Fold this protein.
Amino acid sequence: MILLRDGRLATAFDHASRSYDALVAANPGYHAHLRRSVRRLGLPHRGEGLRVLDLGCGTGASTAALAAVLPGARIVGVDASAGMLERAAAKAWTDRVTFLRAPAEALDGAGVRGPFDAVFAAYLLRNVADPDAVLTTVRRLLSPGGRLGVHEYTLGGRRSDRLVWNLVSRGIVQPAAGALGDGELYRHLRRSVLEFDTAGRFAARLRAAGFDAVRALPMPGWQTGITHTFVGRRPRTGSGPGR
């Protein structure tokens, strides 16, 4: 199948927003894994005085993870899907959390302004048409020394990783999503993982985009080899992408 991109993908997420939280809640460890990835950013003092961008916040699961681990931070959640963002904004938040609608590729036009002390992107970068352009924007929005955390389905490269991903997607997720009328979106999501970078290639992509101190850290349990946290940093000096 052809992967969904841009407006078609945002529309598919709009439709899926009504049942998205219920589907992800059926994934063992989903919310705990997001909190683990936030902790791996290593931000100090529970985020006190920091400004954090939640890029691709969806219905707010990643926002909730950030708010739980970094209660002192000011968090800006951004998503391209109006439906997902409506669900996120309707939840109970402190006044430290705000939301804006914008595609990751057009943050300037929506008034997303840096600098941020950290950017967190969960399940986003494999779904954008040009991940390198988004990473360039993220690097620019970060303050020198600012940290990037990416929580993503990126296979480890073994045949068994692909096998497990296909079994879970085809055997559990897609039938449930199809019954809710969201089969096209979840077929896209399965393929998007298979066609995206392996964990090693994505770490190399981050380095090429100008991030240093890059690490790829696996999740525990059945998602080992399937889901990883990537952490990197905008250098404090002026080295550019690819240097």
Remarks:
- The mean pLDDT is 92.
- DSSP finds eight helices and seven strands in the chain.
